[in-house]
Amino acid sequence: MRLTTLAPAKVNLVLRVGPRRPDGFHDIDSLMVPLDLGDEVDVRVGAKAGPVTCRVPGHPGLDGAANLGALAAEGFRRRFGVDRAIAIRIVKRIPVVAGLGGGSSDAAAVIRCLARAFQVRDAGALAEVALEVGSDVPFFLGPGPAWAGGRGERLSPAAVPTLDLVLVYPTDPALAIRAGDAYRWVDAARSDPARGEIPRRPARFAPRHAANDLEGPCMARFEPLSTLRGHLVSRGATAAMMSGSGPTVFGIFGNRRAAGKAAASIAKEGRSKVRVFAVRTAQRHPRVVPWRSPKSGSSPSKRRS
After folding, report:
1. Catalytic residue check, 10
2. What backbone torsions phi and psi does residue 290 show, to the nearest 5 degrees?
């Protein structure tokens, strides 16, 4: 059996960071939304027992057992007593270590494919497998935009209007930020890391509510990120901020035309120093479908294009 799906990127429209917990994680309150930018994930389940393999063409450093998609498959096999061979192939379109949730979304996509292959409908058990892989993974198993509490596992649906965004990802490896570092910097900026007050959620999201508690400490250490945010504002973004732990910054624009114009301008000015995407938020995560050969006119890849 071979199944395929898109693994969408996400942005955090709101990310509030509470106190550091005894387990080393932080309580958060975050409004997360999927985007129409995504990796393509296909999962092949063998007829016999065998290993989990994972291949990411063009990204050899992401191949193998350490890939979050492979870890998700191994977690699924342990939880549900599966020993069948599983081959994962991921076509990356989401930048890596970008604050856009690409690895977490790939892991959730693998879980969704395997849940369909083995007819697993226990949402609670699937969420537990997801959380073992990473704090953001359960979000990508949900129906769409959601508020995430706890360390990210407590999800509640959110009503978010469709938004036109411009993502700006700096390609300089020196600007890559690990999530653990970003949270440590937040702790360092507080007089008492065991304390941290999370503001009340807005009843309905509007661009003025956009906020990210990780942004200040990160931009204080990486001035180019602040410059990129300024480029978005100067080109008409109603709000601009860093997504997650960065280094991607994004701006919210009034319509698709304005977003496209800003994206083209920033890409031209930034040349090879940035990757720029004009995207829209999505109201639901993509479906899992049977894999079809790209040579077929009805293939998923052609339908999406």
Report:
1. yes
2. -60, 140
